[in-house]
């Protein structure tokens, strides 16, 4: 114990270490990576050698770093040697990039120096040092000249192979060959054929079984680099010998590499030689070998030609659905790939292979249709997986269910897959339903319209629990990013009863990313509903297309979605015709666009209520934004002038409005009213995060496409400097110059009916009123919105003179970020995403 205390003194007794901050990275490495410093500190600075080399000249790296690495390669501490081996790999491309003679020489001379250092580390007694050195050699092996690879790299491998008394060195030789072939073999097929393949074949016949195990992966990697004659000849024969090895672990490793080897062999070799090897391994005397071979049934079916699959291979794949956990999980994971590869015409062969399906399977066969029988037999395997007692299997199936539903077709989904989907969505473990909800938009697009609403039950339980700050916020973010696509697939009643309440709750989520995503999707919903109310003939898109405009990836127009949209449009037309007939019979004028404009005026008034006098803002419990002392102008109608009082009277009732009240009329404008009222409450909120959520909602509504980041960092900086030096005039000049240099892209424009709608105008005025908000982040969001609006929607920005006034005031803001966003963002936003 005394010797231990002397060898490892207490940290308090060590002298304090002081780091000179004036040292360059190269100088710091030279001082603190040298011998005599604590090992942990030395390792940290050794790992920073590639960064120091990137900032240094080629001469400094050669004259300083390479001698230092030579000393470190002979260090006594294993951690120091392993760190040295790890930095050799990334250092090779860095030095080669600085070498002007690289192209003329056909390779890097520095890579040869690194190979000499790596050879020393490959012969180290520590296995970790050897593995790190082998990985590094693979990284710079492609930089060696052809002669250096043929002579020196092969000599390094031979030196390791000829250590007959040290099996660890021979394992290192196999590892080195495998990694080099995987990294640089495709670009150097000649070296693989002449040097790597003969050595790997000799190692595959080694007397030690552990070396033969390592040689299996090396043969598979070489199969993708050598000519076809060698692949189907000596290489495949050597692999077949390993499949019949006396040691079960060698055969098990061969079974696990069958699918990878099949992807590198020609079709005839797979059919005539590889599939019989699989069949022999699947019937092996070792249970471990059998399990490894049966796990490869799915990958093999996904990679081979459909006409070459055998009945035994299909049987093994389907029987895995009721097998142990490892087999069922593999079956669930590869089931979509198998369906995609084999096609519908091959699934009738599964009729005899479904005997292990669970008794709870729903099976409704239709005689005479091969495709129908295929779908039903596939569903039997799916049902067996859904009834599995392993959570991981059900999770894997739920993650791929949207792919399966898209492949089998709507008829098979409605008849057979729908019960499985419902069982997964109602699973007792939340992880299963969460896995199903991750791709809920794609899944709903494949379901019949009446069955879509029932799959949204998870929305009620995805919010954070009481007392939890964030909960599973990443899951909520994934759902929030799909809301607009989900809304496009639902009918008005489902949208009002289920989706909107959950969406509005997400707009008040404790995590900022979730709030922003939900607000953006909600803005896309409102844009789609307004376009639908105005006929859906203009703007960013009507109906489903407009609702999906806020997503990064628009939902595909599936036949089920198109049918639902047509049915919904026909129902709305019939309702409008009935209303016109009733009104004409009663002597009243027909309901037309005037009704929509009237509702738009009410929405405008609701937005104007957010900029009520300052005393009303204080009574609401939040700071009154600048400009709150004035009532914003509306449409000029009497209804708009009287609407603020009506909105104020309705707000107390709306705060306690039950979820069932969302199920109003099927008119899209009625749903928009409910959304706008909630957004106005956020705009009036005393919390700046709620106001930022409101701005995110307005941005998504007014800008159908999210503006891209500025591509040129110099442009915003130059405009910001001009704004600080000369005020708004210089900033405007900078923006005009940028407009002249970069032509405006074809931004999707809001339709005339949507842009002139009172709701849109009122929400824009509400955003403009936040230009004098006391919180800089809120003003920054306003500046970005208005600057992008002036570029992407110039007609809408020109309607309100307060847009230009707000931008001018923001360009002179005390916050530099706000200045840059107001003055320079239009120039940056001119390039399309």
Automatic annotation (TrEMBL):
InterPro entries: ARM-like, ARM-type_fold, HEAT, HEAT_type_2, PP2A_Regulatory_Subunit_A. Residues 553-584, 604-628, 639-666, 714-744 have a biased composition (Low complexity). Residues 536-552 have a biased composition (Gly residues). SUPFAM superfamilies: ARM repeat. GO terms for molecular function: protein phosphatase regulator activity. Residues 536-666, 707-749 are annotated as: Disordered. Keywords: Repeat. The keyword Lyase does not apply. It comes from the Eukaryota. HEAT repeats lie at residues 65-101, 499-533. One of its GO terms (cellular component) is cytoplasm. The keyword Thylakoid does not apply. This is TOG domain-containing protein.
